[in-house]
Amino acid sequence: MKPDWREADEPLRKITITGSELNEMVEITGSAKGLHCIGIGTDAAAFTYDGTPGYAYKVYSDLALPKKEIEKQVYERLAGIPFFPKFYGEGEHYLVISYEEGPTLHECLTSGIPVPEQVIRDVEEARTLVRSRGLNPRDIHLKNVLLQNGRAKILDVSEYVRDGDDKRWEHLVWAYRLFYPSVEGSKVPAWVLDSIKKGYNRLDQANGSIEEFAQRISQLFSKFMK
Predict the structure, then answer these.
(1) Distance in angstroms (rounded) separating the CA atoms of residues 138 and 134
(2) Beta pairing partners, 97
(3) Tens digits of residue pLDDT in 18-50
(4) In the beta sheet, which residues pair with residue 28?
(5) Nearest CA to 5 among 89, 65, 84, 80?
(6) Of 8, 73, 139, 163, which sees the most CB atoms within 10 A?
């Protein structure tokens, strides 16, 4: 029998998540025995609790509490789609979802863990299902897709109510087809991925083309592979 997720409520009250209006990572103060931070973002931090295995708690800063309500509604609308965590409930400052194991795609690249084609197909199917629920599957990137038993599990649905296509997933698929075969099984240094990310984020500001960006990536990988 699964433990009651509410058993973590008291330990969670012993921590404070402080956000920033400058979109910086949240700060965590306080601690509680058995409580473990498993991720930090600009709106919230995620925790597990030893007394309630199988659950993850996304704890929001005061600044981000409106986003908590939005994300709750998104999870409720995604219910039954197997590519996302299950939603269980909420506390004053947190949402409760299923704890999902597995490396992120970013960790797969830095650790040399092969990413199968099935992961790409799973995310494509998930995006179609998200749209069928009247939502917009945005902000899908290397750090919020898990490799789980050869399949994909997608984390962080907070932007699915926003309009527009940020093209992040489309460009990841493009990079997977074009560059990944040359590095599959190799450990790609984190600094290489960070350099690619920074260059990608500057694309719009510099009005550069994706083709020019591809040439820079090719040069970077050619140096790495030597």
Answers:
(1) 13
(2) 56, 87
(3) 999 888 999 999 999 999 999 999 999 999 999
(4) 17
(5) 89
(6) 8
Q: Are 141 and 168 in contact (CB under 8 A)?
A: yes
Give the phi and the psi of residue 165 in degrees, each rounded to 5: -110, 115
Per-residue pLDDT tens digits for 76-93: 999 999 999 999 999 999
Quote the CATH superfamily of domain 5-98: Phosphorylase Kinase; domain 1 (3.30.200.20)
CA–CA distance, 57 with 94 (Å, rounded to integer): 6
**Domain spans of the chain?**
5-98, 105-225
d(CA 44, CA 163): 22
CATH topology classification for 105-225: Transferase(Phosphotransferase); domain 1 (1.10.510)
